[in-house]
Design the sequence.
């Protein structure tokens, strides 16, 4: 994460995945949801539905619904390893600067 912390702001501004996380955070603010947190916990748990649901104190089906909503809003597939990695990096970057 060292390189992420030292990334210049102009490079951060060009990150499509960070834009998606910012849009997701704005959605959370408007709707009172916790989709960014849900995504972060899910990715922290290595994509394990069981562990993420346990960490979030929600039912596995609730987690699945939230993840589907995240995928739709962000136009990504969390089943794709590269997109999952980019989203995880973007979430971490978002947390570093917000």
Sequence:
């Amino acid at each position: 994460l060292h390189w992420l912390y030292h990334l210049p702001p102009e490079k951060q501004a060009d990150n499509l995945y960070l834009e998606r996380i910012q849009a997701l955070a704005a959605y959370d603010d408007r709707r009172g949801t916790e989709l960014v947190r849900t995504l972060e916990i899910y990715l922290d748990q290595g994509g394990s539905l069981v562990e993420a649901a346990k960490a979030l104190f929600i039912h596995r089906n609730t987690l699945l619904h939230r993840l589907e909503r995240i995928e739709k809003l962000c136009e990504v597939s969390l089943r794709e390893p590269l997109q999952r990695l980019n989203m995880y990096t973007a979430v971490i970057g978002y947390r570093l600067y917000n």
Observations:
- The first helix runs from residue 2 to 5.
- The radius of gyration is 13 Å.
- The chain is about 75% helix and 0% strand.
